[in-house]
Amino acid sequence: MNWAGRFRAPLADFTSVPRPLDGVPPFVWHGSVRTPEIAEQAPRYGDGFFVNNMFAPMEHYARSVALYRRRFTHHGDGAPEDGAVGAGSGIWVHANSQEAVREYRP
């Protein structure tokens, strides 16, 4: 595939992955830590919303999910509970980075 756009260098002989299977495109997750625009963008395309809430207050996380669900319904993709919402966070802490890497990635 060849492609040229406005905001990045052109692509020549490019193959995107994952490819559609039997004509069905893969499910797409839009991820965000703090950006509410992603909670708006994902339902515009009928896609899932993954929010990482590592350090923000739970209220921020809840507002982002509520916005996604409202906009999912607004765009005609179904009831708020039909939208795909994923959440998670993770942090690995140790006395120093060398010990953390040694223990986390043996």
UniProtKB/TrEMBL annotation:
* Organism lineage: Bacteria, Bacillati, Actinomycetota, Actinomycetes, Kitasatosporales
The family database entries (InterPro entries) matched by this protein are listed as: Luciferase-like_dom, Luciferase-like_sf
The identity of this protein, by name, is: Luciferase-like domain-containing protein
Q: Where is the Luciferase-like domain?
A: 2-105
* Signal peptide positions (record): none
* A Pfam family hit: Bac_luciferase
Q: Which organism is it from?
A: Streptomyces silvae
